[in-house]
Amino acid sequence: MMPALTAGRIPAMTDEAIARVRRLEAALLELPQVPIATDHVLHGGMYARTIMIPAGVVLTGALIRVPTVLILAGDATVDTGEDAVRLTGYHVLAASAHRRQAFLAHADTWLTMVFATRAATVEQAEDEFTDEAHLLLSRQLGAVNAIHITGE
Known about the structure:
- About 15% of the residues lie in helices and about 40% in strands.
- By secondary structure, the protein is mainly β.
- Strands 1, 2, 3, 4, 5, 6, 7 and 8 form an eight-stranded mixed β-sheet that branches.
């Protein structure tokens, strides 16, 4: 059977798999942290957030509670809980709610997450997609954020 990721889909994760990612995150927090900028776009009833994970960096995401589209451009191994798949190049993935991925960037890798929203601010959109907004890199002291809100 083909792993879900290579079939263009990231499935929901089990609670056990999410707990494993949380344990990885706790271990990673003991290491020097790499600053990661976030580019936010609110336009046409959609919210998109883009980050670039530098080569050699391992990053864990917050628990996502809404279905999204995840666009990956680069070379990274993605751990979804049930499997880990190396994705190279450009991939547009249907990503289910209830997931908390870990990524290992083998080369600089861009991730863009997109979902439908009625949010008017980045903070509202972040609070909509996760209960862990306080953990987002975009909310950390000294965070670098580029914000584009069109009002359309």
